[in-house]
């Protein structure tokens, strides 16, 4: 692991580096990935670089998702539109390497970033928008503890039709209740105590 910021069972999250840009650009131009995201323009490397630069400024949290086995960057996740008065932020994730879909990584990363929002940043509400046709995303967010709170009717245009946008959120007390109800992993006698970040991510990575 290199520059690990949050550590889970399958993946860790670290700052996005300039060397990640070519992969990020390739994924943004992959229709199967991008159809679930806000962006529809063809992405040049320069556009991707400037997006990454913008994400690393201000209060946004932008992180690369990296496999613990093999140290491969497979996508990005983070928090945006942090509002310190309302103590809320939007969550975003994209696993661009499709060979890693449906393996529980999206759920694990969602839990890790939400734990960071509540435990480290003292936020109260994390929200997200997801297109109604993104059943995989909706399922992953539900598994991570998000509740559907409403629908923006026909708010999104894609592939020649309007689609509903589902709004989901999780509140800090809901997350704490789920965390406290979850079984704790057994510790091996004499095992080294984990770092705080390992503990935060690890106990929410199931
Ligand atoms: C959406 C995304 C983050 C989910 O991550 P993931 O690692 O693939 O998701 P997980 O494996 O944790 O969970 C996916 C769940 O959806 C289920 N699923 C997959 N396809 C499905 C479908 N068509 N209908 C219903 N459920 C589906 C899986 O079976 C799994 O549920 P289970 O564990 O109960 O079996 C990831 O696929 C991704 O980044 N996609 C491209 C970009 C994107 O959609 N970003 C999110 C924008 S809001």
Brief summary of the model shown:
The chain is built from seven helices and eight strands, in the order ββαααβββαβαββαα.
How is the secondary structure organized here?
Elements: E1 6-7, E2 11-15, H1 21-28, H2 31-34, H3 45-55, E3 61-67, E4 73-83, E5 88-95, H4 105-120, E6 125-131, H5 135-143, E7 147-158, E8 161-171, H6 172-181, H7 196-202
Parallel strand pairs: 5-6
Antiparallel strand pairs: 1-2, 2-3, 3-4, 4-5, 6-8, 7-8
Bound molecules: coenzyme A.
Coenzyme A binds next to strand 5, helix 4 and helix 5.
- SSE class: alpha+beta
Instruction: Tell me the series of helices and strands, N- to C-terminal.
Output: EEHHHEEEHEHEEHH
CATH fold-level assignment: Aminopeptidase
The beta-strand count equals 8
- Quaternary structure annotation: single chain
CATH class descriptor: Alpha Beta
What is the gyration radius calculated from CA atoms? 17 Å
- Give the overall pLDDT as a whole number: 90
Examine the secondary-structure arrangement and name the CATH architecture. Answer: 3-Layer(aba) Sandwich
- Main sheet? 8 strands, mixed
Strand content: 25-35%
In this entry the ligands are: coenzyme A
Number of helical elements: 7
Return the domain count.
Answer: 1
Q: What is the assigned CATH homologous superfamily?
A: Gcn5-related N-acetyltransferase (GNAT)
- Strand order in the sheet with the most strands: 1-2-3-4-5-6-8-7
Q: Tell me, what's the shape? A: globular
User: Runs with pLDDT <50, length 5+?
Assistant: 190-206
- The end-to-end distance, rounded to whole angstroms, is 20 Å
């Amino acid at each position: 692991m290199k520059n690990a910021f949050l550590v889970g069972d399958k993946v860790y999250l670290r700052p996005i580096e300039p060397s990640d840009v070519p992969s990020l650009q390739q994924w943004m131009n992959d229709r199967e990935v991008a159809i679930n995201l806000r962006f529809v323009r063809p992405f040049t490397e320069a556009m991707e670089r400037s997006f990454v630069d913008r994400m690393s400024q201000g209060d946004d949290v932008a992180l690369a998702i990296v496999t613990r086995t093999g140290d491969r960057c497979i996508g990005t996740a983070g928090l945006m539109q942090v509002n310190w008065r309302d103590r809320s932020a939007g969550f975003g994730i994209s696993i661009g390497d499709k060979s890693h879909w449906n393996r529980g990584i999206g759920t694990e990363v969602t839990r890790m970033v939400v734990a960071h929002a509540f435990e480290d940043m003292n936020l109260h509400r994390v929200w997200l928008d997801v297109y109604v046709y993104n059943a995989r995303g909706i399922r992953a967010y539900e598994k991570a503890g998000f509740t559907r709170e409403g629908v923006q009717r026909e708010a999104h245009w894609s592939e020649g039709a309007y689609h509903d946008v589902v709004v989901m959120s999780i509140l800090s007390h809901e997350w704490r209740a789920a965390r406290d109800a979850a079984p704790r992993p057994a510790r091996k006698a004499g095992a080294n105590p984990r770092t705080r970040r390992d503990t935060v991510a690890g106990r929410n990575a199931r």
